[in-house]
């Protein structure tokens, strides 16, 4: 009976071990994927049926984590999203998620990954020209 318990334990753990990612995401890869997701999310909100009305005046959001101006751009965009509260679409789940995730990325970049990130350029005009994804 003990052999069956050990066999069951081994057979139940093998799929867990094989499905686990071999390399955990680094701070850089986490920031890079979050920035891409946020750029796409903001573009989708500008085109969305429910949110295009109040997101039309918002600037395009392009987050290049290699640009030193990205922190300023994120602070500005967070404050613009917070001002949307007096408009109807500010209370939609997507807009609230955009603001929350943007704040999360800002904290992640400024506090958690502060020593791991290297800004290679300092050109704020590049962030204003939205190259798209």
TrEMBL record:
<dbReference type="GO" id="GO:0045944">
    <property type="term" value="P:positive regulation of transcription by RNA polymerase II"/>
</dbReference>
<dbReference type="InterPro" id="IPR029253">
    <property type="entry name" value="CYTL1"/>
</dbReference>
<feature type="signal peptide">
    <location>
        <begin position="1"/>
        <end position="19"/>
    </location>
</feature>
<protein>
    <submittedName>
        <fullName>Cytokine-like protein 1</fullName>
    </submittedName>
</protein>
<keyword id="KW-0732">Signal</keyword>
<dbReference type="Pfam" id="PF15153">
    <property type="entry name" value="CYTL1"/>
</dbReference>
